[in-house]
Amino acid sequence: MSNRILVVDDSRDFRNLMADLLGAVGYQVATAANGNAAIPQAVAFQPGLILMDVQMPDLDGCEACRRIKRHPELSDIPVMLMSGDSGAASKAVAAGADAFMPKPFGLDRLVARIRALIGRDSPGVCFQEAG
What we know:
- The chain is α/β, with parallel strands linked by helices.
- Helix content is 40%, strand content 18%.
- The protein contains five helices and five strands; from the N terminus they run βαβαβαβαβα.
- The chain has a five-stranded parallel sheet, with helices on both faces.
- Helix 2 runs parallel beside helix 3 (61-70).
- The radius of gyration is 13 Å and the shape is globular.
């Protein structure tokens, strides 16, 4: 699988932080500010994973996930939805997400989940998974 990750969040600070942190462990990162921007960005970037916030203006993460999963060029890409609202996990599952990550989260845990979704040969080997 690809070591490319598309980070979708309406917070510019969060997008930049994720791009810096994931880039530092070897991932190529592109970003989008909302669900509407995520779909064309995913088509252009062809990520191995889409990491997307649930609560965003215009098009929320759940509806964007549904559209991604129906899109012929994107349907096989794993989507991990994330939210500070613990109740969003069931919404993420209903939307077809491959995983859900509650915010806040540690980088070790995030990288472990990413590796589980896109393959063991992906970057991030400096982080050990809890076992």
